[in-house]
Amino acid sequence: MTSFNIKCVALITMFMQHITYTYYPTTELGGALHSLLGLSGNIAFPLYVFLIAEGSRHTRSKSKFLLRLGVFALLSQIPYNMLFYETVASRNLNIFFCHFLGVLAIYVYEYVGMKSGKKWIARILPALLIIITAILPMHIDGGGFIGVAMIFFTYLATTRKWQMLVIGLGCVFLDMVNSSTLLSVLLRFQIERIEFLLSLNPSAIQATLFSLLSLIPVALHNGKCGRPLKWAFYWSYPLHLALLANVAVLLHPAL
Asked: CB atoms < 10 A from the CB of 231, how many?
């Protein structure tokens, strides 16, 4: 599979999940379909982690790549708020911010750390960025600091097997924790009796299994770019959010 093929799979599964925010099932069959569509989105994020890491590896200019992600993060924020929170402004950030921070960690690692000749700087600066992301008092779609760490370490992975291992472990941890900030993770500990926060439950297992399906396209990636439709994939995110937000309003005008 080329990168173009993987982008198509990621885009379709993401769109399938986002459709669930436009309707509410009234039958058992409808509920099952709603759940299936919702779970399908778990395939998309790990694929985007892989694509962002590969994009960082092969881009001609990491600074321009970083700038594009930042611009589309801003462009996508209002449609994102409208679809998921039915408001123009919220304390939640769309997935482009996760991608932006992941590439920023890579950029800091390479251009600030490694080029300074001091390896300890190259190691500590990305770690500080991930920690800062963890303690931010807001939700960042795409797993927050875990998503940022997944992008960074997938980029550092030197072989496809190591990339798959990083993505697989990240998916398991992300789906079990189901948290985007370090504070909310810590709050899941019980004070009276210490419980391991990664307690197994059917929803977490289902989410993890769907997430791990993303490893199939990653394993089949042939290292080729495929069709050069870069801008189409960038624009697809804010446009599909705006479209679905308007569909939701039309279907549920009273909400």
From this structure: 9
Strand partners, 139: 92
Q: For all residues of the chain together, what is the average pLDDT?
A: 83
Number of domains observed in the structure of the chain: 1
Measured in whole angstroms, the distance separating CA 48 from the mean position of its chain's CA atoms is 6
SS (H, E, C) the chain: CCHHHHHHHHHHHHHHHHHCCCCCCCCHHHHHHHHHHHHHHHHHHHHHHHHHHHHHHHCCCHHHHHHHHHHHHHHHHHHHHHHHHCCCCCCEECHHHHHHHHHHHHHHHHHHHHHHCCHHHHHHHHHHHHHHHHHCCCEECCCCHHHHHHHHHHHHCCCHHHHHHHHHHHHHHHHHHCCCCHHHHHCCCCCCCCCCCCCCCHHHHHHHHHHHCCHHHHHHCCCCCCCCCHHHHHHHHHHHHHHHHHHHHHHCCCC
The number of residues in the chain equals 255
Q: What six digits make up the tokens of 35?
A: 């759940």
Look at 12-21, 139-148, 203-212 and tell me which has the smallest mean pLDDT.
203-212
pLDDT tens digit sequence for 195-232: 444 445 566 677 788 889 999 999 999 988 888 788 89
Among all chains, which residue has been given the structure tokens 């399906």?
213
Q: Which residues pair with 92 in a beta bridge?
A: 139
pTM for this predicted structure:
0.84
Q: What is the pLDDT of residue 166?
A: 92
